[in-house]
Design a protein that fits this description.
There is one protein chain. By secondary structure, the chain is mainly α. It has 19 helices and no strands. Helix 4 crosses helix 11, helix 6 packs parallel to helix 10 and helix 16 packs antiparallel against helix 19. The longest helix has 26 residues. It is globular. The N and C termini lie far apart (43 Å).
């Protein structure tokens, strides 16, 4: 009986290992499959919150807190990157939106941009940086500090810019964000305690494959209506998609330029992190009670989020090679101990 059970798990584990080994190709494919099979959206939408909790849990599970503490030596740099991503970005977006009148002319789009800018970076950002050959250390440290403060900064900016646009108060938004992060961290800590860091590292590719499946559930849940929206109003949908790409690459470019003094490899890695915003966290905190335009923008941001790592990998490798040759930055690391 035991042998039968072992054999039953062999094939799924092999499948997950293969999927995890596909890296950025699998991440890019997720967005297209999610749009190509609309019925999955309706089927999986009730599980958005669970998918987000799963993604957060896996990311926290992989963080070695003892090793992470050792990377906090460059406190000024970590603090600067944290302030930029949690305060600088939403403040600039909010001021530009008010100055251009976007909050009055397109409130749904304004809400989407504000929630995007208020969100913490995606928990997958360090893994994506590592997949692209970049040094993931600074990304990981800034991600942890930024995620820790986002319940408070998001509540602040919701009070400053959103007023009554949300169905929940800014304080409740902050409390929900804090609760989601706390639950994910607790679950991840228990998993690390039960199975150990060695087992997690040993099954890295299988966990990557499982992570991609959860990412697919999330992407399908929020992208299921994209094809319908495109058929109903193609110009509007294309315009929103173009804006999503423009915001993504603007954040990437501006951040890279702002942090260029630490070396373009590290600056590019920080730019990648800042442009990859955790919109799922905001969806979970607001329970998806958002206008149609906000949902559409969130759905279309999945294209640059999923495609950019695949498209930018050649650039990242050239930047890393240039840094290695010039000696201006350390070689890109993929582990916390690098």
């Amino acid at each position: 009986m035991l042998r039968v059970l072992e054999n039953l798990f062999v094939i799924p584990l092999r499948g997950l290992t293969w999927l995890g080994g596909q890296g950025t190709r699998a991440v890019a494919a997720v967005a297209f499959i999610a749009v190509a099979v609309p019925p999955l959206g309706a089927l999986l939408r009730p599980y958005v919150t669970e998918a987000i909790l799963g993604l957060l849990c896996i990311s926290f599970m992989r963080v070695d807190l003892a090793a992470l503490y050792g990377h906090l030596r460059r406190r000024a740099l970590v603090a600067t990157a944290t302030v930029w991503t949690t305060i600088g970005v939403p403040l600039i977006v909010g001021l530009i939106a008010h100055a251009t009148g976007l909050d009055r002319s397109a409130p749904g789009l304004f809400l989407a941009l504000m929630l995007q800018s208020m969100a913490s970076p995606m928990m997958a950002a360090p893994a994506l940086a590592a997949l692209m050959g970049l040094d993931a250390t600074l990304v990981l440290v800034t991600l942890v500090t930024g995620t820790a403060v986002v319940p408070f900064t998001a509540s602040l900016f919701a009070s400053l810019f959103l007023g009554g646009m949300l169905s929940i108060s800014p304080l409740v938004l902050g409390a929900k964000l804090l609760g989601i992060l706390a639950i994910s961290l607790f679950a991840a800590t228990m998993i690390r305690w039960l199975f150990g860091a060695e087992a997690i590292q040993r099954h890295k590719q299988s966990i990557d494959g499982f992570n991609i499946i959860i990412l697919f559930i999330f992407a399908s849940a929020i992208m299921g209506d994209v094809a319908h929206d495109f058929i109903a109003d193609p110009l509007f949908t294309i315009g929103i998609a173009a804006l999503a790409f423009a915001v993504y690459f603007t954040l990437l470019a501006v951040t890279t330029l702002l942090f260029r003094r630490i070396g373009y490899e590290r600056a590019f890695a920080v730019g990648l992190m800042v442009s990859q915003r955790n919109l799922g966290l905001m969806l979970a905190a607001t329970a998806g009670a958002l206008p149609t335009t906000t949902w559409l923008y969130f759905a279309l941001t999945q294209f640059p989020i999923h495609l950019a790592p695949y498209l930018l990998t050649p650039i990242a490798r050239r930047v890393t090679a240039s840094a290695d040759t010039s000696g201006t930055a350390p070689a890109g690391g993929t582990t916390l101990s690098s």
